[in-house]
Amino acid sequence: MLLTPGPTALPPSVRDVMSEELINPDVDPAFADRYDALLDKLGTVFGTDDEVVVMGGEGILGLEAAIASTVEPGDRVLCLSNGPYGDGFTDFVESYGAESTLVDADYDDSLPVVELERTLAAGEYDVATMVHCETPTGTLNDLSPALDLLDEHGVLTIVDAVSSLGGAPVPTDRIDICLGASQKCFSAPPGLAIASVSDVAWDRIEARDPASLYTNLLPWHEAEQPYPYTHLTTLVVALDEALDLLLDEGLDAVHDRHREVAAYCRERGAEMGLDPYPDPERSSPTVTAFSVPGRATALQERLREAHDVTLATGFGDLADDVLRVGHMGYNADPDRVERAMDALAAER
Ligand SMILES: Cc1ncc(COP(=O)(O)O)c(C=O)c1O
């Protein structure tokens, strides 16, 4: 039983649609219609009227495309961070020749808003990046204070909401480029990177001299069809089915389900004496990270071998110190999480 924080297990009907007859996305009008409907559904889940693009590639492609399309050498980008994905934006920024300023906090702390305010007062920035849910630490960031400040200073905002979209409310209407991925709370297979792009962001993208073609978002905006290259049709129909399941249940009900299952997971953890890694107030409804110093890999192996339950360990310095239960999308299910926590109780 796969209970990692993405890719998640797939609902049976999502698996089924992937065995449908293949459609040629360039010639079959049925695909174009389905694709248009998919974009509308994504607009509803993202909570925005901004244009949405669905690129063939995993989540990282969306992060890179957002930077590749909005910066050029000489631009100044402020990367706000309290986790590995927040830090990682600096690599994209620098690889496209722009200057990055990292404003960071410890991984178990909240976003450093006071330092952000000071940094914005002391210099000019073109673009700012941040992460809504830092999946590796199980932290859901409150973005509002940072978005307020960046808005006051007229800075374009890029937010990685890869592991929160579809599992928690995201303030997409306040974000210029908001990034998602198919394999997290949507519970579709990995392979599609999704971005909503504001008009202000398109203006900026149109004015850039792109250093890259394939990771540039502009062809998606300018193409006659809403996709400039042969689309990954099997993944698109899978995502479409996954979104139908989500919207049939209703976005609010889906968010409630994530909150309830996360609370259950943490209660069970507390009962067995496991400490949450981030402060419970900042714990994401989509993933729980427990602090298990020096034991994460051994526990992961034992759970897989003895119980057929696959959880995730941490990342980088936290690799062996954090064990993560992904309760997102199809896995935000009381029975599945109960089974995982029973297994953990038996092994911890
Ligand atoms: C917050 C966050 N951003 C980006 C990514 C990258 O997504 P992918 O692994 O699909 O490239 C991940 C993947 O785990 C993630 O958790």
UniProtKB/TrEMBL annotation:
Keywords: Aminotransferase, Pyridoxal phosphate, Transferase. Residues 31-313 form the Aminotransferase class V domain. It comes from the Archaea. The keyword Transferase applies. SUPFAM superfamilies: PLP-dependent transferases. One of its GO terms (molecular function) is L-serine-pyruvate transaminase activity. Gene3D superfamilies: Aspartate Aminotransferase, domain 1, Type I PLP-dependent aspartate aminotransferase-like (Major domain). InterPro entries: Aminotrans_V_dom (IPR000192), PyrdxlP-dep_Trfase (IPR015424), PyrdxlP-dep_Trfase_major (IPR015421), PyrdxlP-dep_Trfase_small (IPR015422), SP_NH2Trfase/AEP_transaminase (IPR024169). Its cofactor is pyridoxal 5'-phosphate. One of its GO terms (biological process) is glycine biosynthetic process, by transamination of glyoxylate. Belongs to the class-V pyridoxal-phosphate-dependent aminotransferase family. This is Alanine--glyoxylate aminotransferase family protein.
